[in-house]
Design brief:
The chain is mainly α and about 190 residues long. It has seven helices and no strands. The chain is globular and about 55 Å long.
């Protein structure tokens, strides 16, 4: 039954991934592709959408994959599956926090997990970047494409926000305007391989 398969798949991802939604992304991508639940292009498009929607990233993706695969109940089972491990772990940690908060073993484990989480997030960045910018292999012309140049502008705006006191709403409005203009002019045609 697809509902239980969704639940156990996302339960496994939620239970064995430390570091949030971005760290879960490589596992979600691998499971979705292995099971043939949706095309890579659809998943990449929804990753972009889930960035701009409220709520935790992993929950948004689990809900979307569940909806695409099993409708309303698929979304419920996938969402509960990805949330339940964290909920149980937090309950256990809250119960045992006083006893283990000064443990050098716990501190060492958490320190060791930091590089792993950074590695998982970097793997997500490389995987999605390759899918979006280099679907047919590495070509220098990609660096002159409108999609890459828009991404570069967004990155520069992000750096600008780090050093200058500029209200973020203006950056959001500017980005929305650029998105509308490029969308209507057809400058950003998707070139994602499935």
């Amino acid at each position: 039954m697809i509902y239980w398969e969704l639940f156990f798949t996302f339960f496994k991802i939620g239970a064995f991934t430390f570091g949030g939604g971005y760290a879960m992304l490589p596992f979600i991508q691998a499971e979705v592709q292995q099971k043939g639940w949706m095309a890579l292009q659809d998943l990449v498009n929804f990753i972009a959408v889930s960035e701009s929607t409220p709520g935790p990233f992993a929950v948004n993706i689990a809900t979307y994959v569940g909806t695409e695969t099993g409708g309303f109940w698929g979304a419920c089972f996938a969402t509960i599956g990805v949330v339940l491990p964290s909920f149980v772990i937090i309950l256990i940690i809250a119960r045992c926090l006083k006893k283990f908060q000064n443990s050098s073993l716990v501190k060492g484990c958490l320190s060791g997990l930091k590089p792993a989480v950074v590695g998982l997030i970097a793997a997500s960045l490389l995987s999605i970047g390759q899918t979006v910018f280099f679907p047919d292999g590495f070509y220098w012309t990609v660096f002159l494409s409108p999609a890459f140049l828009c991404s570069l502008v967004i990155f520069m705006l992000m750096l600008f926000l780090q050093w200058k006191k500029f209200h973020p709403i203006w950056i959001i409005l500017l980005s929305a305007g650029l998105g509308l203009v490029t969308g209507y002019l057809g400058l950003l045609e998707p070139t994602i391989a499935t």
